[in-house]
Structures
1.
Amino acid sequence: MAAIKGIVGAENVLEAYEDRYCYTYDASAVTAGREGTPALVVYPGSAAEVSALLVLANAHKIPVIPRGAGSNVSGGSIPRAGAMVMVLTRMNRIVIIDRRNMIAEAEAGVITADFQAEVEKLGLFYPPDPASKAFSTLGGNVAECAGGPRGAKYGVTRDYVLGLEAVLPTGEIVKTGARTMKCVAGYDLTRLITGSEGTLAVVTKVIVKLLPLPEAKKTLLAVFADMDRAAETVSQVFMAGVVPTTLELLDNIYIRNIEEYVHIGLPVDAEAVLLIEVDGDPAVLDKQAGIIARICREQGATEVKVARDAKEADELWVARRAAFAAMSRVRPTVIGEDCTVPRDRIPEMVRAIRAIAAKYDIIIAVLGHAGDGNLHATILTDERDREEMARVEQAAAEIFTATLAMDGTLTGEHGIGLVKKKYLPLEMGEGGMMAMRAIKRALDPNNILNPDLI
């Protein structure tokens, strides 16, 4: 303990049981690990301190759990008993925003929304927008390869990461990528580390590319009496040549609970709504919105509303971001999966989710970043009810099986974590698992860095 305090300072080490217990959970419904607490919690302030801590941990075979804000929903920062939790929030400096080259460099603990706000002051744009962006960190976003509603047009975190400063499990500080738009020198370690969920390296700095800030945006709400027609509309919009910034699908369970929670006038009798946004040149937004509105009506929308101003549009997005909080009013445990299928399979996947919910007599609400096929099958349950949780587990397994049968993936943005690790071989196959294990062994021979994940 004295050596650790010597590295980061005594004021940056938590030893009291009450403090350590606060780090036994994250935003997931995972309970594994809560029967034991980490041995200590440390707050390093630099890559050099992270390196020294990892060298020490390797020497003593201490498991290390990197952590940002703990906002992930896949159990990615649940520690085992006796582990060292390494919290990176002290490293919260924006190093540079380079307007000329449209890039930025920031430390891992910078809050995503704060970073976006600083970038936008200069007329630039960082698109990744996880629902947790008001408190999640850039380092955590990189570790999980976070997505968000804007993924339909702009992609996910990996599409913007140009380079990293990271510390390998054995303590070596590495720099990957470059401050250039193109870099093909050596293996693509940037992409290997991005999305590796803290199992291969501790990210300390991030270099990201930026875009020009869109001049304007327009938000629409399309109301449907039939879920199938709403789901089918998603593909029809893209087939018409329009690429919306976001295209969100919410079912009646979500609609009712969000409206009861935030009171903004959502149609509580609707079977489904699509929340759609387009951005870009103001001269073409009306045309794009008109095409989308026409397609929605042709697909059976009973009403299509266009937000009259920025305030009304912001209210709709505040409501959308409150979705998971609103659902906690129904049952105490909210399990948000993120199965992702090709866009044209969305209607089929929604039907499968509903059939599985009926089969196991559980509540599953459907919300999705439908523009990129990412559906959040949201299971509402109570983890204290063991009999119901057994049915939940069976239902989740069938959802995953159905997803893969439709050429989809187990996770579009949340990561595997503890939640889905036993299902990963179904997607990767034994050969894929063997390759990943070989990489893990090569970089982390003592298996100290997030050893329970993936």
Note: The first strand starts at residue 13 and ends at 14.
2.
Amino acid sequence: MKKVLVLGAGLVSKPLVVYLLDHGFHVTVASRTVSKAEALVEDNENGQAISWTVDQIDELKKMVSEHDLAVSLLPYSYHVTVANVCLEFNKHLLTTSYVSDDMRALDAKAKEKNLVFLNECGLDPGIDHMSAMKIIHDVERRNGKVVSFRSTTGALQAFEANNNPFGYKFSWAPKGVLLASKNPSQWLQNGEIVSYPGEQLFENYSIENVPGVGAFENYPNRDSVPYKDIYGLHDAHTVYRGTYRMTGWCETMRKIVALGWLNEEPLEGFSGRTFGDVTRHLIGASPGEELPHAAATFLNLDSYATVIKRLEWLGLFSDKPLPEDKDNPLDYMNVVTTERMVLEKDERDMIVMHHEFQAEFPDGSKKHLTSTLLDFGLPGGDTSIARTVSLPAAIAVRMILEGTINMPGVHIPVHPEIYDPILDELSKMGIEFKEQSEQMS
């Protein structure tokens, strides 16, 4: 029996663990909170839960040595440490995170040892690559060329659960969402590179209607320019990857950034005790000044602006005590958003992924191609984000250990040998894209 080591027992881990146990693998889940690992393996005789923290390197080496493949669902900064241990003990590796330069540098060593280090095999990154490459390769097989590519994904609450003024609920790590709000962005638009620093991220959004789904804000997701080469889009004049949010999100987050609420360093000279005290300190408001009005003035907004109402609802002007175990605005924000913007167990989340291509063919015809995924979580069961992140990873683990994927080195799932069987199996699970083609004039 093949043995899989899963590092991390977070919000998206369960479908992966259940899938692997159901397919006859022995699965060990190692987590700082062992109760979370125990909840994943339950009483399955082929499941094991271990208490482990990332600083226990000797224990990590022991665990990796006893398994055939390691799945790292840890924060991305730990993946290379796990990868080096996998190299030491000749074990395969899978992650759902973006490939770092340090991970990419291990390609030659992985090939030398005939090991598969498959990364970016989740939702975004992951399913986005696979579904896009399926269309791109199909165009190429017909001797066509993709001249424009736009791809956007949103992990959101379902419309019926959209009942808070932020229009957002956390179905995965809240701090990750907040940190992503500070990322710089750039993309290729009509042959020119467009770029913005992180503080201007939310100034550059559009309203997009996804046919059959709804209208959303669309803002750029990190650096899209490398995907011209990663996806082999040599003829493309536009290459854009974005993120969907409900309307109102971008303006509100831009103002939160402007206030300084996403700063990661302790506030110099701050001695306050409440969330309102933090806001007052950040904007330099006097002790007797009404906070909503002072914040509106600082942000150049009317005091009745919707953004101010959202910040008030969240509690940023309140006497709510600060958490004693945190010491900076970002961590304070992480606590209050987790409390106020939670996806309840009886609510559904929703994944929207939409690709748009413009393709030209040798006969002179031009086509507008779309590929759209709309997936919902199960109330009281797995969320859509958990399913769409961990099931591609689980399928890939099975394929690696069964020898179906036999491509040594550091990879992402842009090869037909990887993405075709994964997409086929996901389709049978109801995670399926709707593809459309329209003639362009």
Note: DSSP finds 16 helices and 16 strands in the chain.
